[in-house]
Amino acid sequence: MTDPAAPAAPRERSRAARIARAVAATLLVLAIVTLPWTGPRLLAKLAFFRVRKVEIRGAVYLPPADLIARLRLDSTASVWDDPEPLERRIERHPQVRDAHVGRKLPGTLVVDVRENLPVALVPNARGFAVIDERGQPLPIDPATTKLDLPILASRDTAIARLLAELRARYPALFARVSEIRREGRNELLVRLPDVRVRALADVTADRLAEITPVEDDLARRHLAVAELDLRYRDQVIARLQ
């Protein structure tokens, strides 16, 4: 006698197999989608990825040891840990403009920093303070750090911004500036080792750089210049010694 349910068995098995494959595919897709969130947490538990080395990049005046101390890493720290808390700790340093923490597998953290660079020295009760382009003091001791910076009479933010622009765009000219001070309400006196430069208070780095070809021309003609005047539009007036 033939079982009427027998022909249905292969169809049921085929249907169950299709459902199983669909479930497996769904789980695979879910695993792939959630991997960016779950993967690092799982990998962070492996001793193979513990932090064994920290590489600091971009630090010019900042001691790398200061930045490493700010990370506050312990023996369980992993390269797969969330980098944002580490970046925030470093960026609290007044000398750091921004920071990025990456990884070099299996056990190295790579810290890229961009500093608030010093642009001038300002006299204070203890000697000199080092300021950045915002006129803010930096935790740099000029007595122990080799610095060759212009001297300002005070924390003048406009002049500090000018010096930062000059440092970025014309580093050779910036390196020659020994002092900048205000002359009256609307003029600046810029002292270089061998010449004075007079300019309006709103002078730009590009305008200051116009003295370079003039100096080169005077040097070729063996003429000694005492002062260069930029106060007149589109002109550089040289006063010879």
Topology:
Elements (H helix, E strand, L loop, with lengths): L7 H36 L9 E5 L6 H8 L12 H8 L4 E9 L3 E8 L4 E5 L2 E5 L5 E2 L12 E2 L4 H13 L1 H6 L2 E5 L3 E5 L4 E5 L4 H5 L1 H10 L4 E5 L7 E4 L1
Parallel strand pairs: 1-3, 7-8, 10-11
Antiparallel strand pairs: 2-3, 4-5, 5-6, 8-9, 9-10, 11-12
Low-confidence stretches: 27-35
Mean pLDDT: 87
Rounded to an integer in angstroms, the radius of gyration calculated over CA atoms is: 32 Å
What proportion of the residues form beta strands (DSSP E)?
15-25%
Give the spatial strand order of the biggest sheet. Answer: 7-8-9-10-11-12
Oligomer: single chain
* Secondary structure: helix percent: 25-40%
Main beta-sheet strand count, sense and barrel state: 6 strands, mixed
Number of continuous helical runs: 7
What is the CATH T-level topology of the largest domain? Answer: Rossmann fold
- Which CATH architecture of the largest domain? 3-Layer(aba) Sandwich
General description of the model:
β11 and β12 form a beta hairpin. This protein has two domains: 47-115, Roll (Ubiquitin-like (UB roll)), CATH 3.10.20; 120-240, Rossmann fold, CATH 3.40.50. Helices cover 36% and strands 25% of the residues. The strands form three sheets. Strands 7-8-9-10-11-12 form a six-stranded mixed beta sheet, with helices on one face. Strands 1-3-2 form a three-stranded mixed beta sheet, with helices on one face. The protein has a three-stranded antiparallel beta sheet with strand order 4-5-6, with no helix packed on it. It has helices at 8-43, 64-71, 84-91, 157-169, 171-176, 205-209, 211-220, and strands at residues 53-57, 96-104, 108-115, 120-124, 127-131, 137-138, 151-152, 179-183, 187-191, 196-200, 225-229, 237-240. It has 241 residues and is an alpha/beta fold. It is elongated, with a radius of gyration of 32 Å.
